[in-house]
Amino acid sequence: MRILALDHGTVRIGVAVSDELKVIASPLEYIPAEPLAEALDRLKTLVREKEVGQIIVGMPRNMDGSYGPAAEKVRQFVAELKPTLNLPIRTWDERLTSAQANRMLIQGHVRRQDRKQVVDKMAAAILLQSYLDSGAGGVMA
């Protein structure tokens, strides 16, 4: 079973998936965040197609470790996901994943207009790779 990572934003949801061995994260796509029902339908399809057994959702935190308004939106999103996907869902610290994704794309000479199309799925892949590298990928806490 694979792990699916979601980088939830107000406009787009970045999606990444692990390989079956849960070693490598790959960016997959982004999904428009609204309307939520359509986003959830797309996620259900991806879970089925990719044989996903666990979901990781990026939890935004301030640099001091505290939670802000964006974290509350993610909590609400997770509350919607749980009954829809019926899979283990875990949040994971996503501090600086979007900034890191942007830096990587800039270094790769990706134009600003094109970066908007891929930054969310890249951030999801960075989030998932962080989770996999931590060793938590094989154990549910």
Explained architecture:
The chain is α/β, with parallel strands linked by helices and 141 residues long. It has one domain (2-138): Nucleotidyltransferase, domain 5 (2-Layer Sandwich). It is built from four helices and five strands. It has a five-stranded mixed sheet, sandwiched between helices. Helix 2 links the parallel strand 4 (52-59) and strand 5 (89-93). Helix 1 packs across helix 2 and helix 3 (97-107) crosses helix 4 (112-133). The longest helix is centred in the last third of the chain and has 22 residues, at 112-133. It is globular and about 40 Å long.
The gist of it:
The chain has about 140 residues and is of the alpha/beta class.
| Overall number of structural domains | 1
Helix count, per DSSP?
4
The spatial strand order of the largest sheet comes to: 3-2-1-4-5
Q: CATH homologous superfamily? A: YqgF/RNase H-like domain
Give the topology string: H per helix, E per strand. Answer: EEEHEHEHH
Q: Tally the beta strands.
A: 5
CATH class: Alpha Beta
**Which segments are poorly predicted (pLDDT under 50) over 5 or more consecutive residues?**
none
Strand content: 15-25%
Average pLDDT, rounded to a whole number, is: 87
N→C terminal distance: 17 Å
For the CA atoms, what is the radius of gyration?
14 Å
CATH topology title: Nucleotidyltransferase, domain 5
Which structural class matches the secondary elements? alpha/beta
Assembly annotation: single chain
